[in-house]
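Q: What changes when beta-D-glucopyranose is included in the input?
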Amino acid sequence: MNTLISNDSKWILTEEGTDPETIRQNETLFALSNGHFGTRGSLEEVGRTKNYSHSEATLVNAYYDSEPIQYGEWAYGYAKEHQTVIPVPNGKKLTIKLDNERFDLEAGKTTNHKRQLDLKKGILTRTFTWENTKGHRIDVKIERFVSYDYPEILAQKVAVTPHDDDCALEIVTGLDDLKDLGQASEIESNDPRVKTQKGRRFRSEKIKNTQNKMLHIETNNTNLNLIVGEKNQFSSPSADYSTKGNEESWEVKAIKGETVVLERLVAYSNIFDDNSERDGIAQRTSTLLNEASAIGFQELKEKQIKHMEEFWDMSDIEIEGDDELQVGLRFNLFHLYQAAGRDGNRNMSAKGLTGEGYEGHYFWDTEMYMLPFFLYTQPKIAKRLLNYRYTILEEARNRAREMAVDAGALFAWRTINGKEASPYYPAGTAQIHINGDIAHAIHTYVKATGDKRFGMKEGLEILLETARFYAAWGHYDEKRNGAFVLNDVTGPDEYTAIVNNNYYTNLMAKHNFKYAADMVEAVLESEDELGQEVLSRINFKKKELNNWKKAYENMFLPYDEEQQLTMQDDSFFHKEVWDIENTPKENFPLLLNYHPLTIYRYQVNKQADTVLAQFLFSDEFSQEQKARDYEYYESVTTHDSSLSRSIFGIMASDLNQMEKAYNYFMDTALMDISDLQSNTKDGVHAANMGGTWMSMIYGFGGLRLVGDTLHFKPRLPEEWKRITFKVQFRHRVIKVSISKEEADYQLIKGEPLVIKHFDEERYLK
Ligand code: BGC
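A: The predicted holo structure follows.
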């Protein structure tokens, strides 16, 4: 059993002791966030925690700076600028001094050191007893949370109690020293999954004339502004209060057994780009701090608990029969919920707000891995995530023009501001499947929620522009009996690049054509005003509808008749098979140990590709076909990407290979807790966390949306007695409870509906 997980709670991760390695590792796992900002689970004694910390970063979603990408050799259309999310002033900083001696884990003696992340409440608590060199002891308890009700606020409470005698106590707070501010973390690495730019990235200035302490920061090149303010309340009125530079301090003669308390609030305002708004926003932030401080830590905490209760009530999954897994599972759901941008303008990065890995970029991960969880349990957030794509549609149009495609839009492979930020196009821009991924997500969202308004407006426009792009990128190939082909693309598997007719991409594009054609027909038929406005604004021509239908019908989908296998692309089976078994363990992931061209020359997969296509459209393939393809592609897959295992697990359930499904699921659900990919230090693997939810609901629950009906084909692994979860579907809430013997579907909110349990129809009311 993982040491973080104990038997006595299905909600709490517990770390005990002061081992630097463990504390450093848990910095990512204990990160707290709310979609607007997040802060890693680092210790409060900032600056004295080097051995205990990989990065103490506090990150604001989409607060980034940019710099020109330096290429050794440039070519037309390459991505121009890095976009790098940068740590903002660290509001966790607290210094405790006893008899003028400063606490840290290497001074004096610390005992009973314990940190607990309470998933149910969304609160991180640290407790310990510290003995200084003079033998005086204090008991300390520090609580921290990132508020959902006040999304700009980080709340902390430190409570110190002298243990054996009265003592001289001092507590000092402050944002990091101004001179250190604006440095991107010192992380330097050749690992393309890290890639943080070093150096000073923003200017900062104190704001005068506000009631609370306020700092204005502005990024160097993107000119994004942020106000960071703080407000502290100390319990003892007799304390000696002083300020020095950035710091505030309270000195007090503390009495044995009596607890002194500091409540600390730090606010990170919303990002703004017009500097003239600064004073108004500073004022607003200051007022917010006053309000929150008047409410007080205790009540803010109760609100947080209530918010989390509502979240869990809808989004929890219960497993009977495996307590370790139960916590592990909840840990994933917790982080998913924390990571999603909620304002419609920002999205969800591959690491959430738990680390600087992948520079805070948004990928296809959102639509294909994280979105299903939101779609079926928090549809309002799902809509906001999709709306972000609408906000960058214009950039996607520009990108298509840059790629000499004269119609439609191509979404950036990785980005914050909508512009392509991937400097390596073979595994970046070439992944044009991102268009089809977004289209698929929109289609599923509209079907599952019934949100016609989004479907007829933002959704429609995106579906049409992505379809236009594919129509212009591809062509009819006479040598393939006139089939519609898409050449020189990269599929999800990044160990195979720039190929013709990647099966996954072609299938996604094919469906994109269908979604677009169906929507246009629906608009024309219903004369929906919103829809018609979109068609006329983007200058839709009727002949496009016929083009899409024709491309849909003639899409080339490579298949090897001789082996009866679906082909990943035109050339895949012509390559030699990589000898995975005899590759030394330390050479994985291959991307860190072999030149791309070495990898591309072989049949070897980083992640699910064809198998992913078959999962998404599972009713379009026979079970026999899926089983054959699964066996083949599994044998050439390294799972070097964290996006792989969950899909293989779900498809194992689909094929009724339950032991395999269970094993993949265990790796998926515990990936970050057990640091399976050896890079959790850079942030959690958010896509895999979404994969965990999908494994439960799509895998073991067997949920598929077929036409307009929810189909369930539940199958439990031997190890479990029962799983219970809820899904939302078109303003209804359905509670599903599955054991080995039976499946129970209960409609707990909304109008009656028919669902399918295997082949049997069930009427829920
Ligand atoms: C995967 C991509 C993924 C990216 C961000 C890469 O390792 O191959 O599919 O989008 O990580 O998570």
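Observations recorded in class: The chain has a mean pLDDT of 95.
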